[in-house]
Design a protein that fits this description.
heterodimer, A: 339 residues, alpha/beta, Hypothetical Protein Yjia, Chain: A,domain 2, 2 domains, 7-stranded parallel sheet, 6-stranded antiparallel sheet, 13 strands, B: 106 residues, alpha+beta, 3-stranded antiparallel sheet, 3 helices
């Protein structure tokens, strides 16, 4: 049966962080033979697609500029074209798409393109964002380049590259900085045997994805507990808030839309599970900047703890103000009742 | 689509997520959808009072945002609401504003 949505994986990471090497490794896996690839290169002479050594009708080069600035139309056209040619059997069948962005690209516009394009949103779904971080230069890159911080903050998976040539102290420093920005994304190494499954494993069922959020939440809780000792990277902080009462969905949606409207640029990521009034099972929330994915119904609570929990990764925002505001808005709703 | 006014039905805003397997929705049936819209108007007005504005439902498919001086505009969804509210009121609608939080506590 044809899947309703073709999953899209975005591989991002700063210049020289090993995106193309990772992509080569993934495409060499026979399990990923049915993958279409879009490569975005900045500059007139693209090199990455030559390094990839895989040129066929399903490999598309986006050359009009950086993915986040000028090439969004080209991305949209390329995906529409691939979809159309697949339907007409003019290209070999593919069941997933990988996009490799330039090192300076902001991942967010790719998300919005998939989410907002009137055609693409019915056929493609952003499965996950994979960010490569260089174990040798990563700490310096994260300290000096805001683009790299954002790439890490929005990542669903992080691949620590060049660990074979990095000394242990440098690698540890990079991991600490990465964890300070994004405590929840699983951290992988290119030589992990489960790499392909972790990065591209199928979890197209929405409920399974919701349960994935729950699992991530547990690791976030553990990470958040010791987050106090982590360094702040370019004023980016990760924190969790909990709420003991049932959440009024209407008040919550008004609050979150208002927060993201005013501070969306600074809310790099929000993720969590809510005990919503009127439902027996938890609701998973996942947002990146101004974009919030459709809320998912989870099958069951991941533990006996039924409190609502939200994890924020923010830049230059006061965590306590967000927590206060959330509590005030939820308390102001008419249907508030103890959980 | 409404044949009379040409309004397209079905919002794809996350707060109005259509009922699909695994997706949390408050618009699964007409009654639930109307109840949610009524509650949304009531709750939004508690916030908008702070900015001297009011919200009302329009045809079950959009909302009408009005200022105390009569400026009125149609808004499609919650994200659109705050952009229009800021433009009509000339104020930043910030949920972290201590004055707004004080007002909501009262």
């Amino acid at each position: 049966m044809t899947e309703p949505f073709t999953p899209v994986t975005l591989i991002t990471g700063f210049l020289g962080s090993g995106k193309t090497t990772l992509l080569r490794r993934l495409l060499a896996d026979p399990a990923l033979a049915d993958t279409a690839v879009l490569i975005n290169e900045f500059g007139e002479i693209g090199l990455d697609h030559h390094l990839l050594e895989r040129i066929d009708e399903r490999t598309v080069l986006l050359t009009s500029g950086c993915l986040c600035c000028t090439v969004r139309g080209e991305l949209s056209d390329a995906l529409r074209d691939l979809h159309s040619r697949r339907a007409r059997e003019q290209v070999p069948w593919f069941r997933r798409v990988i996009i490799e962005s330039t090192g300076l690209a902001d991942p967010f516009p790719v998300l919005t393109t998939l989410h907002a394009d009137p055609v693409l949103k019915h056929h493609f779904r952003m499965e996950r964002i994979v960010t490569t971080v260089d174990a040798v230069n990563g700490a310096r890159t994260l300290a000096n380049h805001a683009e790299s911080v954002k790439q890490v903050a929005v990542a669903d998976r992080i691949v620590l590259t060049k660990t074979d040539i990095a000394d242990a102290a440098a690698a540890t420093s990079v991991v600490r900085r990465v964890r300070a920005i994004n405590p929840s994304a699983p951290l992988l190494r290119p030589d992990d045997t489960s790499l392909v499954d972790s990065l591209l494993g199928d979890d197209t069922d929405a409920t399974a994805r919701a349960d994935g959020v729950a699992e991530a939440w547990i690791s976030e809780q553990m990470a958040a507990a010791d987050a106090g000792g982590n360094p702040h990277v370019q004023d980016v902080t990760a924190f969790a808030i909990t709420f003991d009462h049932l959440v009024d969905w209407t008040a919550f949606s008004l609050w979150l839309t208002m927060l993201l409207h005013r501070h969306g640029e600074a809310v790099l990521r929000v993720k969590g599970i809510l005990n919503v009034a009127g439902t027996d099972t938890p609701v998973a929330i996942h947002g990146v900047q101004h974009l919030v994915h459709p809320p998912l119904h989870m099958r069951a609570w991941p533990s006996a703890d039924r409190r609502s929990r939200l994890v924020f990764i923010v830049k230059n925002l006061d965590a306590r103000a967000i927590e206060r505001s959330f509590a005030v808005f939820c308390a102001s709703s008419a249907s508030r009742a103890p959980a | 689509m409404c044949a009379l006014c040409g309004v397209l039905g079905g919002s794809d805003h996350w707060a109005d997520a259509p009922a699909r397997p695994g997706v949390f929705s408050r618009v699964a049936d007409p009654l639930q959808r109307r109840r949610e819209r009524a509650q949304r108007v009531e709750t939004a007005n508690r916030i908008l009072t702070h900015y001297r504005m009011t919200l009302s439902d329009w045809q079950g498919s959009a909302f009408i945002l009005s200022t105390a001086t009569g400026k009125t505009e149609l808004v499609d969804n919650l994200s659109h609401l705050w952009a229009v509210a800021e433009r009509l009121s000339g104020r930043a609608c910030d949920p972290l504003d201590p004055l707004l939080m004080d007002a909501l506590r009262d």
